[in-house]
Amino acid sequence: MKKGLIGLVSVVALMVLGACSSSTTSSSSSSSTKSSSDASNQWSEIKKAGVIKVGTSADFAPFEFHTMVNGKDTIVGADIDMMDAIGKELGVKVEYVDMDFNAVLASLEQGQVDIAVSGISATDERKKTFDFSVNYFTPEQLVVVNKANVSKYTTLDSLANKRVGAQKGSIQESIVKDQLPDSQIVSLAKVPNLMVELKQNSIDAAVVESAVAQSYVAQNDDLAIADAKLETAEGDAYAIAMPKGSTELADKINSALEKMIADGTIKEYVQKNTDLANENASN
């Protein structure tokens, strides 16, 4: 990732590569998965296979993103560190399956992955279809604009009739629809694509999670965070999604999560990976 448009284009190109690391393999693994209609013995099958397959969309720094580690394209991030720790606690290997965000929950529902971890908000609507872990991070939502236009967009009303971008299938997409109803929503599959469109003035603003927004602004001198303030709801908090009925698996994941929340480990992961994303951008 480099400063400016070239770096963003590079990131977009990098997204098409499959991640490979000690904890990352292709989606062709023989790890067993269960559909959401039959998850009562999911933990037993995961334990037997020794692998938990995790659906994610690695374009959401600092939570999940691609970087080069020892010459290899690797998925890293706060969610990845968190899941690696949970896998260690559960005694299973963690396998990441990278895809567009709007496909993550669909893959979980279809039984192609065991759980979904990708900055996913546990909304009431999603709870009708999936079980969720305890909330592990509550983000603030920010509006990112071209720096040249920052003085124009100081309120939500100033974004009326403007093109506002959000990641397709994300909570930010719902926030634009709910809190900016007079704007023209532009939904794209990847966050880096939103930033490219913003830098090219193809959209006027983008609604992004705070740590992600701050990371992109730090990497790009021509972007800025607008003063327009969005509301944060309890349903915006991030949680791990599981098939309905994953009671035993949820208990084990929650036990590991609650320890990391209590001792501040989750916040440390977010800060560590924010620094990593910014460091990569400056190289």
Automatic annotation (TrEMBL):
**Which terms does the record give in the GO molecular function aspect?**
ligand-gated monoatomic ion channel activity
**Where is the signal peptide, in residue numbers?**
1-21
Pfam annotation, one family: SBP_bac_3
User: Domain Ionotropic glutamate receptor C-terminal, which positions?
Assistant: 51-273
| Solute-binding protein family 3/N-terminal domain ranges (all copies) | 51-277
Q: Name one GO cellular component term.
A: membrane
* Keyword Disulfide bond listed: no
Q: Does the keyword Lipoprotein apply?
A: no
UniProt KW keywords: Signal
PANTHER family assigned? ARGININE-BINDING EXTRACELLULAR PROTEIN ARTP, MEMBRANE-BOUND LYTIC MUREIN TRANSGLYCOSYLASE F
Q: What is this protein called?
A: ABC transporter, substrate-binding protein, family 3
Lineage summary: Bacteria, Bacillati, Bacillota, Bacilli, Lactobacillales
